[in-house]
Sequence to fold (410 residues):
Amino acid sequence: MKPQCMRNRNRLTVWLLGQLLLSASLFAQRAVAQVSDSQKQMSNATTSGFEAPSPTEISHAITLAASYLERACGPDGRFVYRININSGEQSRSYNIVRHSGAIYALSMQQHTKPDQKAVDAMSRAAFFMRQNYIGPGVRPDQLVVWSKPLPQPSAADLGATGLGLVALTSVELAKPNSVPHEQLQAMGRFLLFLQKSDGSFVSKYRTESGPDEDFESLYYPGEAALGLIDLYEVDRSLVWLNAAAKALSYLARSRAKLADVPPDHWALIATVKLLPYYAQSASPASREELIQHASQICQSLMKGQLRDPVNQALDGSFDPTGRTAPTATRMEGLLAALEFLPNENLRTKVKDTVDHGIAFLLHAQIRDGLYAGGMPGAAIPTGPGTADIRIDFVQHSLCAWLRYEQLLSP
Fold:
């Protein structure tokens, strides 16, 4: 064969191969485009077809979650703090603040739907806390929820005594004369001891060095304010109510000019508890200032919610890894605010946010088996803590569902 013919044939072969590669590339691009269009259509269908959770779904989730906490509270009153659902291994660590939170959630459930099992679990848990974590404070008239078990505690968090007071007052209301009022008042005096003249708090006290000014918690002041208001409901002493109003006033005024306030859901929960008693209190801040502060927090809490993500299991969540606690705590705060927010436009946005957030939590809950009612740390297999249930994961979701159920009530 002549060299010229050989060169022509080689050129033809190269050209044909090029055309085949080009065709394959175009086909692949069309396929990707079709998949993308399909995903968009599915996303749009999901968005347009979204339905807010029904009362029946919420009621079932509440029953399961409350039952889980009741079962998780042992005969001695200690909760199964954290458990791996694959191995059944339980964590040796313990957090008394979250222990109090579990009591708080059961009290909310029991208040809505009287349940003797819930009252019994609350009572056991209260006894465990009083026996193992509550001891003398800095002064003779104080009691403290210490961060570590007695008899040699080294530090006390403001939130431990604040939420501990919330828990014990709720037990006393559910089962009168089960917790001496003198003990509740002694806990209240420790909170007053940690409150500064401007209404702010010291977040931690150390037995060796005293108040720790270097440690600051976002959530402890709201928990302390809530505990003080609950104590006011027990003995009607204005000293507790005024201290709570002073604390929330400090938060409102110190954040008034901030462009972005912290997502402080406990402050919202305390605010909704304070407002019915506002006229009786000596609040430094006006009602309008408190409500404006709540509106600021709502704007902060609504930021970052995932809508129509590629993984639809994440729709309504606030974390790309699927963690459940960030969504649950935000739902608690936003739903509390819906009880008093006057701005209809903001209320509409909050309601839309909680509809999606509550639906996300419903899909994450374990519905059957040994751990039915439990809430995993994450809602997707690749998320952190997917195989772990912790009592605060359950507690925050249960409280959110209870508030949502109240919202749905006619």
In short: The longest strand covers residues 82-84. The beta strands are 82-84, 134-136, 143-145, 155-157, 204-206, 210-212, 388-390.
